[in-house]
Amino acid sequence: MVRIGIITGSTRDSRVNTQVAEWVKSIADQRTDAEFELVDIKDYNLPRYNESVPAVFTRDYQTPEAKPWSEKIDSLDGFIFVLAEYNKGITSGLKDAIDYLYQEWNNKAAGIVSYGSTLGVSAANELRLILSVPKVATVGTHVGMSLFTDFEEMSKFNPAPFHKDTVEKLLDEVIEWSTALKTIRVKEEVTV
Question: Which of 33, 64, 41 lies closest to 173 in space, CA to CA?
Answer without folding.
Answer: 33
